[in-house]
Design brief:
The chain is of the alpha+beta class and 371 residues long. It is built from 9 helices and 7 strands, in the order H-H-H-H-H-E-H-E-E-H-E-E-H-H-E-E. A 5-stranded mixed sheet has the order 2-4-5-7-6. The protein has a two-stranded antiparallel sheet with strand order 1-3. Strand 4 and strand 5 form a beta hairpin. The two termini are 62 Å apart. The protein binds adenosine-5'-diphosphate.
Length: 371
């Protein structure tokens, strides 16, 4: 019976449920009031009469009259108070349920609008604290989703722009070859291969970038000693340097305190920073330096390369940014590496900075928290 009742109320809309629950509470109150006063009031009245009689009042003749009068008065006032009470309580409960329901319906409509793509839809504040809190949380979520959406659109815009250039070059060559305007030669094929390689690198970088920006990159933070990694990177990059190119050196205390980091991600950041240093440094030195400061381990890549102009420094971590479009396109850079590096460092609880002087060299440094 109870179960059937519950199932029945569950199928009702919230407004009716609220209204009925108020009604039930009110009925229980009224019924218990009526029953208890019905039992106790006449008895108390009779006791009162007896006390008056014992004090010397002669009520013997009018006693039945008094009792009937009392009962009549009691019944009338009970009927009136039940009528007025139930009407007022019913009205009040209807008003409260309606007010809550209005807010909820409004919230539902706004969330539906948001889901349909109206990213600037926000819930208004409510005078019901719980609903207000719900509204505030929803609005916070909406702001963050709006940001993700804006970044996604921006990324697609930038990406199509970046992909278009090598595609146009490849199509141009292919059309000219097809029309017989140019002769097929190893040089042409090399250029075509270079552009497709560039496309490939761009697509790979973009995949990493979209994962990093959306926060889907798995980060496995552990207590690690970075010294072996720094040594192996210096060895690997030294092999890539030309005879008359810069020298690569490691400046690192023999015992490095452990840090809390993801070793693979840290390697990815360092490969990017060292790769850039090698790419933009013709002679002099590239130094990989590690030093501790308070609760941080700072790792710096210092080069004596071409440097970056002061007005360009604030942009180096922006995606697709390159100091000189044509030069870097030629060198094969995608302008995504530093954006990914910064995200990876931040995901590990660190920060990345750059200092540079045109023609003198650049220093990229980041810190990781000590374990
Ligand atoms: P890219 O793939 O083009 O190197 P990055 O995001 O790694 O992309 O770097 C962005 C730009 O910052 C580069 O194109 C270059 O202009 C500049 N840059 C990065 N590192 C250095 C450096 N060590 N020296 C001079 N310029 C640099």
């Amino acid at each position: 019976m109870m179960k059937i009742g519950m199932r029945w109320t569950k199928s009702l809309p919230l407004a009716s449920r609220l209204f009925f629950s108020h009604l039930v509470v009110m009925l229980v109150g009224v019924v218990s009031l009526v029953i208890i006063s019905k039992i106790s009031s006449p008895r108390l009245f009779v006791l009162h009469l007896e006390r008056l009689e014992s004090q010397g009042f002669d009520l013997i003749d009018i006693r039945p009259e008094l009792v009937t009068g009392f009962e009549l008065a009691w019944r009338r006032s009970t009927v009136w108070s039940v009528l007025v009470g139930t009407t007022a309580a019913g009205g009040l409960s209807y008003w409260v349920s309606k007010r809550i329901m209005q807010r909820l319906t409004e919230m539902e409509q706004i969330t539906q609008k948001f889901a349909a793509g109206e990213m600037n839809a926000r819930l208004p504040s409510s005078d019901i604290p719980e609903l207000n809190r719900l509204g505030v949380s929803f609005n916070r979520m909406a702001v963050s989703l709006e940001g993700v959406e804006a970044r996604r659109r921006e990324l697609i815009g930038d990406m199509t722009h970046e992909l278009r250039t090598p595609l146009t070059v490849v199509r141009g060559y292919l059309e000219e070859l097809a029309d017989g305007e140019i002769e097929a030669s190893p040089e042409i094929y090399r250029r075509l291969a270079k552009e497709t390689k560039r496309l490939e690198r761009l697509v790979n970088d973009l995949q990493e970038l979209s994962k990093a920006e959306a926060g889907y990159l798995p980060i496995n933070i552990q207590r690690v000693n970075l010294r072996p990694l720094l040594e192996s990177l210096v060895e690997k990059f030294t092999d890539q340097l030309l005879e008359d190119g810069p020298v690569l050196q490691l400046e690192c205390p023999s015992v490095l305190p452990p840090v809390m980091a993801d070793i693979d991600r840290t390697e990815q950041v360092l490969v990017n920073l060292l790769g850039n240093a090698v790419r933009y440094t013709a002679k002099g030195s590239i130094t990989l330096r590690a030093e501790t400061e308070a609760s941080k381990l700072w790792i710096a890549v210092v080069d004596t390369g071409i440097g970056i102009a002061p007005q360009n420094l604030p942009h180096v971590f922006e995606r697709f940014w390159r100091a000189d479009e044509s030069r870097d396109r030629h060198s094969g850079g995608t302008g995504i590496g530093l954006t990914i590096s910064r995200r990876l460092v931040e995901l590990q609880g660190g920060q990345i900075q750059v200092e540079s002087e045109l023609g003198i060299g650049s220093t990229f440094r980041f810190f990781l928290p000590l374990a």
